[in-house]
Amino acid sequence: MPSENFSAGMTQSGRDTLYVFQAMATPCEVRLETLNFTLAEHVARVVETETRRIEQKFSRYRSDSVISRINAAGGAPVEVDTETAMLLDFADQCHRLSDGLFDITSGVLRRIWRFDGSDRVPDAAQVNAVLPQIGWNKVKWQAPFLTLADGMEIDFGGLAKEYAVDRAVALARQITETPTLVNFGGDLCVSGPRADGSRWKVAIESVDRSGNMAAMLELSHGALATSGDARRFLLKDGVRYGHILNPKTGWPIVAAPRSVTVAAATCVEAGMTATMTILQGKNAERFLKREGVKAWCIR
């Protein structure tokens, strides 16, 4: 359900109405090019309701979520609904396209990795103890049934937020033709260009967390998603450990870019590609060039 004090999150500036709320552990924005407060409020309520539905359904932190039900099955098969099956199919495709580097079973590594900016890096024995519980290839997935080995888990952390952005824009389009931008923590999608045909202006944040812009992008269609280590990292003995982990080794990707922003038709596609680029490490730019991806890479 939307926030209790809904109107407090609504502001108007220039020709836009903006609604801000917090969900999925990130700031969420819905911006419509209109001063029709009633219309903007309706769209914003629908978007927040859908976002909280997705958060509840796919959060690993909620005991009543689909993810928790799957992870608590103890090796028994779990029947999933059509929406969950769609995301599992996408995760399976990403796993194959990335040669196993994009793996939704690798979330168990959060038990030993805490990317809080400290110097608490786990030792090799701790990492090696978790590795047997990782590997999408060990999972039996034949829709609508998913079977995990006992002790394994799945985590939609790399998909759910981007999926929520795409759903939000799709619902906004069903309500109105008013130009709309949905931005969840820097992952965003637009319904189309501005009313006068111009592009939306979107800032890419600097990786040094200074609040400065690294670049200003313009977007008229589709989505942008960013992956990087600006907020989640460890720093020990002058070595920075980014939060994107190699599921095959259990350790952060070596020589990865600090930030990758990708443009794509959907936010899910952009987010997946940004993460896959980081997973290429020193070959990130070569990967982007080979795949013909429109992206901005910061080292």
From TrEMBL:
Record key words, sorted: FAD, Flavoprotein, Magnesium, Metal-binding, Transferase
EC class (word): transferase
Catalytic activity: L-threonyl-[protein] + FAD = FMN-L-threonyl-[protein] + AMP + H(+)
Keyword Transferase: yes
Pfam families linked to this entry: ApbE
UniProt-listed Enzyme Commission number(s): 2.7.1.180
SUPFAM superfamilies associated with the record: ApbE-like
Molecular function per GO: transferase activity
Cofactor(s) annotated in UniProt: Mg(2+)
Gene3D superfamilies from the UniProt entry: ApbE-like domains (3.10.520.10)
Family under the similarity heading: Belongs to the ApbE family.
Name the UniProt record assigns to this protein: FAD:protein FMN transferase
